[in-house]
């Protein structure tokens, strides 16, 4: 858009007024031979101003060399805006910069060309050459605290894994994220959530060989297969809790045992298949911060152990027994003092025994109901150390007052024990107690069943890869032997787990047990040594191998036995 006539005249007049002082100075300072008067008529108007004529004193003069500067009309950068640009038709255009036009002539050169040495100003610090082989270590200084430190302290991020910006909270508008916890068992089952419950399931199948499944004095080996399912459900509530832990197994043999050639019955059943199931459901109701109601339901399904004198002669298969029980109690906390009390009810029933001759006999004399109670008081002396005292009492009532040998088996008894639960820096955790157990029978012919009681459950984390466990338990078991009140059973188990890799684990276990048949001179000792090797393919598939050697040393003639079991299987879990 062009300028109007009035605006153009005002701009030309302003330019003339600006040049008048310069014209006057040139007229006064110049010589008479060179003086020249410059009038406004001599100025040639151009767009945006005026240009003096070629012979004007305002034109640039030659320098000391006698060469005049370039004429603005000839220099395309200084030419008048009204002068047209030279034509570029037929000319080859060039773009960018020529190669290596900005390369330095000093410093490192990948082509190994000769470079200039850098120049330094006086007093300028020169860089030190990099340390080479044989360079001594940096100086070490000692601080007043007695600790040795480097003269140059490391930075805050030294030896630390850099965090992504999203986790470090450096992303604009995103809150900082917490680090995930280290997974202690990267090959363990993850489980699935069903509502507010975390469900985990697994099943193990194994095949192998047992050199003496009936625990006979004259071994008869048989191939064996084992199927063992597992189920675990844990509630994920802010208050209250429910835990269900169910585990079972079935040991099957492809062939039955062979009867004796002389026709005498075997001290073991011909069909030696054995089921086993242990399950319990625990619940906790948080009435208040210090008051909790506790409950448990439990179920045990099993048979007599092979080699036990309670097994009848001439059996076709093991009779299965079930024990169903429950506990209801309350737990109250008074600052560091904790008091717990509960009532227990249990019921044990045996199946009928099926004999090899096709007949069956009942086991009603072995069926009984048990009612009892348990109380416990503990005090937290310091964090990680909590001594306690526990007392338990119960009464057993059999369905038949007299058993098959005309002995009255009803009894009452219990135990008293004291110990402590502890947790020392997470390296040694568990519980240990020592006490005394007794049981009195209605029949005066049956002596008192009593003995020292020990219970323990200790876990020692020796190293991050090695863990040692110790278990101990004492039970007062029933028996059918005539004149024998019961069996005092003590077991001690030592287990060591070692991880060669996260995916390769070895487990060694040794068990020692004693069975005292009080009222009889019989005493049995049990030795068991086993080893497991577990190869974990992933979280869902494990391959397991097991070798177990068992030895039963009995004071009764013909009752000792030994056996070796070799199993190889796979575990599927979720």
Jot down its keywords.
574 residues; 2 helices; single chain; Maltoporin, Chain A; two-stranded antiparallel sheet; mainly beta; elongated
Characterise the protein shown here.
This protein is mainly beta and 574 residues long. It folds into 2 domains: 5-51, no CATH class; 193-573, Maltoporin, Chain A (Beta Barrel). 5% of the residues lie in helices and 46% in strands. The protein has 2 helices and 25 strands. It has an 18-stranded antiparallel β-barrel. It has a two-stranded antiparallel ribbon with strand order 1-2. Strand 13 and strand 14 (360-361) form a beta hairpin.
- Overall mean confidence score, pLDDT: 83
> Which fold name fills CATH's third level, the topology of the largest domain?
Maltoporin, Chain A
Uncertain segments: 30-36, 46-51
Number of domains: 2
How much β-strand is present in the residues? over 45%
Number of extended strands: 25
CATH class of the largest domain: Mainly Beta
Quaternary organization:
single chain
Span between N and C termini?
81 Å
The rough form would be described as elongated
Bin the helical content: under 10%
Give a brief rundown of this model:
The protein is mainly β and 574 residues long. It has two domains: 5-51, no CATH class; 193-573, Maltoporin, Chain A (Beta Barrel), CATH 2.40.170. It is 5% helix and 46% strand.
Secondary-structure topology with pairs:
Layout: H1 5-29, E1 44-46, E2 49-51, E3 140-142, E4 148-150, H2 165-168, E5 192-194, E6 197-210, E7 222-235, E8 241-253, E9 274-286, E10 291-302, E11 321-334, E12 337-350, E13 353-354, E14 360-361, E15 368-379, E16 385-398, E17 411-424, E18 428-441, E19 449-463, E20 466-477, E21 486-501, E22 504-518, E23 523-536, E24 541-554, E25 561-573
Antiparallel strand pairs: 1-2, 3-4, 5-6, 6-7, 6-25, 7-8, 8-9, 9-10, 10-11, 11-12, 12-15, 13-14, 15-16, 16-17, 17-18, 18-19, 19-20, 20-21, 21-22, 22-23, 23-24, 24-25
